[in-house]
Every structure is written in structure tokens, then in C-alpha cells.
Write a structure and sequence with these properties.
alpha/beta, 9-stranded mixed sheet, binds 6-O-phosphono-beta-D-glucopyranose, 36% helix, 15 helices, 19% strand
């Protein structure tokens, strides 16, 4: 039989070169720039993935000249560089292309100064990156539009990357979108969700659609439930003021974890092209059942850790969720009736993100198992996103010795052991993608809106009630209600 063409074969994907361009970072004095963006760009330079003619222009309100900005960023890049291989000589070379423009984002003079800087640097392709406080996103869009900075010259491009959160509800996401569209065409708007750039999240597609043996099992006939856990051991780390407005549901589930769910559950695409992959993700997100207000108490649990209200910048009576667990159902032929349990929280026992796909038990128990209950330990496929990166399959095996006693064992794939070396960070991947113009791993407005529609009934319900917070201790797996959520359908969290 002729082999069908592999839709994911894209030999150029990792070879492609970034064109000559400039990246203008709004919010250059902020956390994301020093922790993620500049270290990622430096690493790309170290890996020779950037063109010889490349410039970074940082902008924020703080008055600084180029030299001061470079001196300020040097120790930060050194500190946050994941590979740890900081090289003085390379930094000198890299920093020569690092510029800075100070100004107020409300002031048209800033945009004139940016225009002058770009002209001075001589770059026609420009990627604007919004990493400011979210309330400034639409101001930047308006001003970039008014200054004509969104318009590209013939043969060149102008693009904009918008950091999360994209709006704080459905209406504000729509409003932000309209403002962006006034300055940039849709195909030049890149809404970032850094989870989609993680190697392990990208690998979900390779695993599902690059292999023939898993896809036949990937449906309601064989899958009992799917659990997605994104646990963090840290608290809000000085981001109390932002976080108390956001909460776990908005901060992690509306974007990152619904994108992960969509990646796990979407239909295969015919080709591996941006519109095709994004169409399938969008379709899946639109198939998630929207809860009625009366169902929220049954399907969603909010938690807050003891001590959150004492964090810097947090209201002592804050009703913020620092933990959220939700049961989603996907109303399509593949997944009807299969619960997707999602949970995330701060101050949980460990940092660990994974997806556990639990299969139905064998129809008959022919054998005894060590714990006497085979059906309680069903086959489990765990896609480990971080910090461990890999995939495990748990199944039963005969315990050596007389008699037929079974014991769960596991088959493990570990990225490090199989591939060696370091995987690129999500920001390295996504920055390159934006610069080469590949939006596959970026979200689209219809996806953003579909996810807001899914979480909005929960947000509204939570806003209208008064919780008895705090309701979990740091270092535990959230409130007991999260266990009860699963117990209602005779399930339990995998590792709690
Ligand atoms: C961010 C959230 O988007 O993702 C943070 O705002 C969270 O609160 C972070 O800590 C988690 O990202 P990662 O890559 O460390 O899992």
C-alpha cells in the first residue's frame, strides 16, 4: 500500500532563517523582557539563528539611553539565560544592536521617536511586541495606527505580538481586537500563548498524528477521562496586584490550559499549515459545552491559599481564586461524555504540568493485582509537559513468581535521554515564528473568543458569590472540594 504523505513533514521548519528585521518591545523595563524576551533573543543569537542585520528597540517610560539600557539588561540576561552559557564577547556583539527609546505610550512623540530610531537603524521589517500592562495594549494599537507604523512598505512587513491576557472577558477581548484591526491586518496580529510554543505541547501533535497506533484509541470508546494539571509551587511572586484581578481561571485556564486541551482533543488536519491547525483548534474550542449558571457549582471549584491575602498588593479581603478546577465536556462525536478535568493553582506541592489520559479498564478482571483492584489502576498515558519532559505509558505486568499476580509498570520516554541537549524555550520558538511569519502556534481571535465564552459563566458565577477563603493550605493539592468534584462522577485526581 502506498504510504500517505506525512502531513507534518516540514523539513524547513527548523532550518528557516529569520529575515533582517527589528523588534520593538513595549514594556522593556518590565519583568517579561528581562526574564524571557531578551534571554530568548540572546540565545537565538548564540545559536546563530538571527540575521547579521538585526535590531532590538526597547521602550518604556523610564528615561535611559542605549548604554544604560544595555548595562541594565546584561546581568538580567546572564541570570535568566536557561542554558547558562553566557558569553561576554557575544554579549558585546548582541548589545551593539540593543537600543532604547523612552516615552509615554499615550504621547504621539514616542511613536515619532520610534519611527526615527527605525529609520536610523535602517530596518523596514518590524515586529512590535506588546509586553506592557494589558490596559496599554489598545493605546499602543491606536497610537501605532495613528502614526502609520502598522503600514508596511512594499516588500516589507509590520507585525504585532500581543501578550496575554487578551482582554479580561469576552467583551473586552472583542474591543481590543477592533482597536488592533484598525492598525494591523489580522494576518499580522500574533496573539501569544507561550504554552503553545513549549516543545512538549508541540509534541502532542507529533505524538498523535505522526504515529499510527494512538489515534484509533483517542476517543470516547477507549478514553475514560482526561486530566490536565498545571501545578505551581510558587505563590504570586510580587505580582499580587495583577493576580488579584486575574485569578487562576483567567490567568491559566482561559488561555494556556484550554489551548492544551484543544491540542489534545482536536481533529487531525489535512496539512500542517497555520490556518489548518488553527481551524481545528478553534473548532474544538467551540465544541466545549458552555455551562449554564446553575451548573457552575457542580462543575467548577475555586480555591485560595492561606496567606494570599497577606501578599504584597493584595486586598486583605480578596475573593481571588489562586486555584481552579473545572470539568469540561466536549460536545462532538469523538468526545461526547468524556470528562476533561482541568486544575491549576499556586502554592501546590510541586511544579508539575501534565496531561493524563486514562483509558477504560479491561472488561473482565481475570487476574489478581498487588493492591487487589485492577480497575482502580487503569492504563494511563501521561504526557509530561514540565519540568520533567516526556511521555509514560502505564500498564499491568505479571509480577515474577508463581501465580498470576499483576502489578502496574511503566514505559517511559524522556526528552533528555532520547535527544540530549537543551530544547528551545517557548519564547525562542515563538519569536522566530513571528519573525518568519508563521502563526501556527499563535492563537486567533476566534479561538480567544471561544475560550472566553467557555470560562465566562464560571467567572460570572464566582464574581456573584462570597467564598469562604482561604480554603487550602500551601503545599496541598487545593481545597477538598476539588476531590469532591471528581468523586461526583466516581473519578479521582491522579496524584493527589
Ligand atoms: C503565565 C501566568 O502566563 O504563566 C503565570 O501569568 C504562570 O501566573 C505562568 O506562573 C506559568 O508559565 P510556565 O511556563 O512557568 O508554566
Amino acid at each position: 500500500m502506498a504510504e500517505a504523505q506525512n502531513p507534518f513533514a516540514d523539513p524547513l521548519r527548523f532550518e528557516r532563517r529569520v529575515p533582517e528585521c527589528a523588534i520593538v518591545i513595549f514594556g522593556a523595563n518590565g519583568d517579561l523582557t528581562k526574564r524571557k524576551l531578551l534571554p530568548a533573543l540572546y540565545q537565538l543569537a548564540a545559536d546563530r539563528r538571527l540575521p547579521a542585520s538585526f535590531a532590538i528597540v526597547g521602550t518604556s517610560r523610564t528615561a535611559m539611553d542605549d548604554e544604560t539600557f544595555r548595562a541594565k539588561m546584561r546581568p538580567e540576561v546572564q541570570r535568566f539565560l536557561e542554558s547558562g552559557n553566557f558569553d561576554d564577547e557575544l554579549w558585546t556583539h548582541f548589545a551593539a544592536n540593543l537600543h532604547y527609546v523612552a516615552g509615554d505610550m499615550n504621547d504621539p512623540a514616542l511613536y515619532q521617536a520610534i519611527r526615527d530610531k527605525l529609520a536610523q537603524i535602517g530596518q523596514r521589517n518590524v515586529l512590535f511586541y506588546l509586553s506592557t500592562q494589558p490596559s496599554y495594549y489598545s493605546i499602543a494599537a491606536d497610537q501605532l495606527g495613528a502614526a502609520g507604523l502598522g503600514e508596511s512598505a512594499p516588500g516589507a512587513w509590520r507585525r504585532i505580538v500581543v501578550e496575554k491576557p487578551f482582554g479580561h472577558d469576552l467583551a473586552s477581548a472583542g474591543a481590543l481586537n477592533a482597536r488592533l484591526h484598525a492598525a494591523f491586518p489580522e494576518e499580522e496580529i500574533y496573539r501569544i500563548d507561550h504554552y503553545l510554543g513549549k516543545e512538549t505541547v508541540q509534541n502532542i501533535l507529533a505524538f498523535r498524528f505522526g504515529n499510527g497506533i494512538f489515534e484509533p484509541l483517542w476517543n470516547r470508546r477507549y478514553v475514560n477521562n482526561i486530566q490536565i494539571t498545571a501545578a505551581e509551587a510558587i505563590g504570586v511572586e510580587g505580582r499580587g496586584a495583577y493576580y488579584q484581578e486575574a485569578g487562576a481561571l483567567r490567568d491559566m485556564i482561559q488561555n494556556h490550559l484550554l489551548q492544551v486541551l484543544a491540542t489534545v482533543a482536536m481533529e487531525p488536519t489535512a496539512v500542517f499549515e497555520p490556518h489548518a491547525v488553527r481551524d481545528e483548534r478553534a473548532k474544538l474550542l467551540r465544541s466545549i459545552k458552555i455551562m449554564r449558571p446553575s451548573e457552575v457549582a457542580q462543575f467548577a471549584v475555586a480555591g485560595q491559599y492561606h496567606g494570599f491575602r497577606e501578599e504584597l498588593g493584595v486586598d486583605p479581603a480578596a475573593q481571588t481564586d489562586t486555584f481552579a478546577a473545572v470539568t469540561f465536556y466536549v460536545d462532538n462525536w469523538r468526545w461526547a461524555g468524556v470528562p476533561f478535568f482541568i486544575r491549576t493553582g499556586k502554592k501546590l506541592p510541586k511544579r508539575s504540568t501534565d496531561i493524563a489520559i486514562q483509558f477504560n479498564s479491561a472488561p473482565l478482571s481475570l487476574f489478581g493485582s498487588a493492591d487487589g483492584e485492577l480497575s482502580r489502576r487503569p492504563n494511563l498515558l501521561i504526557l509530561r509537559i514540565q519540568p520533567e519532559e516526556g511521555i509514560s505509558l502505564r500498564f499491568f505486568s505479571k509480577h515474577p513468581g508463581s501465580g498470576m499476580h499483576l502489578r502496574p509498570v511503566s514505559m517511559d520516554f524522556k526528552y533528555g535521554a532520547s535527544f540530549g541537549g537543551r530544547s528551545p524555550s517557548a519564547y525562542e520558538t515563538l519569536l522566530v515564528d513571528a519573525m518568519v511569519g508563521d502563526a501556527t502556534l499563535y492563537t486567533r481571535q476566534d479561538m480567544v473568543e471561544a475560550s472566553w465564552k467557555v470560562v465566562e459563566p464560571i467567572l460570572e458565577n464566582w464574581q456573584s458569590q462570597k467564598f469562604h477563603f482561604p480554603n487550602y493550605e500551601p503545599g496541598t493539592w487545593g481545597p477538598v472540594e476539588a476531590d469532591k468534584l471528581l468523586a461526583r462522577t466516581n473519578h479521582q485526581w491522579r496524584n493527589s
